[in-house]
Amino acid sequence: MKIPDVRTAAVPILDAVARVVWSRPSTTHLPGDPEWLVQNRLPWLLETMRRFPVVRARAAESMATAWPDDRTRSLAALLLSPDGSVVAAAIDALDLATPPAKDRAAQRSARTIAGLRKKLAAERQRRDYAEGDVRKAELLLAETRDAHTDLEERVDELNRRLAIEQRRFQEPQAVAAALLHILEQPPASPKDDSATRDPHNEAAPSAHYNKTLLRAAEASALPPERLLAAVRAVVAPATRPVRVVQELDLRVTPLGGDTEIGGSCLLVEAGGTRLLVDAGLRPGEQARPPRDIELAMPGELHGIVVTHAHSDHCGYVPALIARNPGLRVLATAETVMLMPVMWNDSAKLMRGRTRQLSRWGADGAVLYGPDDVDTAAARCEEVTYGVPRRIGELTVELFPAGHILGAAGVVIRAGDRRVVVTGDISGFPQESVDGYALPESAAGADLLVMESTCCGEDHDDRGRRVGDFIREVQEIHQNGGRVLIPAFALGRAQEVALLMRRHLPEVPVRIDGMAVELTTAFETATASSVRPLKVFGPAVTPANRPAELDTFRSGVIITTSGMLTGGPAVQWAARILPESGSALFLSGYQDEESPGAQLRQVPEVGGKFTLPDHSGEVTVPVRARVAALRLSAHADRGGLLDIADEVSADHTMLVHGTQRRQWRFRETLRIRNHETVEAALWRPTSRPRAE
User: Fold this and answer.
1) CB 366 within 8 A of CB 350
2) Which residues of the chain have pLDDT under 50?
3) Are 268 and 343 in a shared domain?
4) Is 682 part of a structural domain of the chain?
């Protein structure tokens, strides 16, 4: 019998032994079946045959009725003998424990292949780690470049603002406007009697002029009122006497932002004077001017009153100045300081979008550039609340409108006719600004032009909303998480930061993006006021990006953009959304096509979200809590009704809202005996009334 034949005859015997061994409870941990034992555990199986007679007996018993052939029967007598020494001798003699050369070569090949596969897997893992490191390095490089660019732009903006101020004070009219604003400021502790507060009242005692005016009057040897008159003459040179009201032909025409939110613009004409109230940009992929602005272009424009510094109200002003170099720009001192920051950002975005479109062979509109911003800033005149300012045959008087820092409504007088324009308005106090304060001159106006952003809503109690927000932030911070608040750079970012300083001064806050620059402008604009705003402090600081994207592990990040369309908010969101113990609060209006609105639709558990990124987009899992932070800066339905009742105008025109909501709100106004008119050309319908 040849050895290979012996091995072949031994296979059924080994299979029988393997089945016996595999059936024992002590072998349940083995990964394979009896065949696997023969192929992979042969030495151990033979040792079991030597040591345990019971195993040999059971194997012989299982084969007793079905011997394959005589050779196997003869071999089994040796291998399954009750005598262990016989079994051991047979195993050694037959050399069953040593595989044949062919099998040994196959096993060596198998081991070599397994080793190579293991090395290949390790190399693939190293490659994956290396590629991950490269991606992280590329992301860090892009973020570092962004941060460096932001820093350069911040320094450039500071230099530009300095240059703008220097240029402004090279023009006599701008110097006079700034001086007039200072001189017309009310005294620190005014009397309750409004007549004595009015610096235009010749009978007003000198005690009710501010100290700066009194010192200037003393130095010039002029009575305070004569000094004011001289400065006013430089700011607004005298015009011909005002004609009777019928000849003034007062007209009010909305040119944008009437049945939509964005591109606000109102044309007021009387006699030979043509005045705009606001000139804002319309939102979208490309910046667009007010819808019907071209209707104002034929003929000379004499001035524009800007109600506040949001781009949808002031963003088109530099383009207007480029087309009308002599145009006067009137706004509160705070708005005058904030507008150039917003204009520069709009100019930068327009340049960026134009470059992006050019790559695809499309044209993009750049409405204005940095030089236009400088020119527009030099044309601005600060106007004090409650002090009338003359523009041709019209007189304008600004009043506090709440909403954001520096926001104003305006009363426009044309002879005996009066038009009240609210601008964006709110009646509740905020951290950065109080509510509106209508002047006596607004009561009984001929026309009230009123915003209607939230005319279909009744807001919850603001104090309760703030309390809920503060509690959630405190809980997340105490559990080691962080909170991302994408916010609009002007107004909302500062409001949230001030809320944190007041209610959670121990929680670290980082401000990032354009909000840093505007927060600095907030502090500068109010530094000398009776209510200086201090946002930055020990706990509230500018973000150190990109380092703090990963190292700032617990606290609040307030950054742009508010709709997650780009900017630092996207970089922070890519880190924070995957964190189960963190949160992202959307703090303002979200356009239905914006990433912010789409994020609200992602499932709370196990969802994924795609963010815009440097290379196009990045998809991240969403484990953080996503919710809305409702802190509207607009009057709601009840607040707007209060304004309409307080003004009690002959006619009310709704603007800055959606058409369906406006239609319903007009019905409510009608029920309350307010006569409304369409957002279209308006003229007085009756003779002027005696006051």
Assistant:
1) yes
2) 1-4, 190-206, 241-246, 689-691
3) yes
4) no
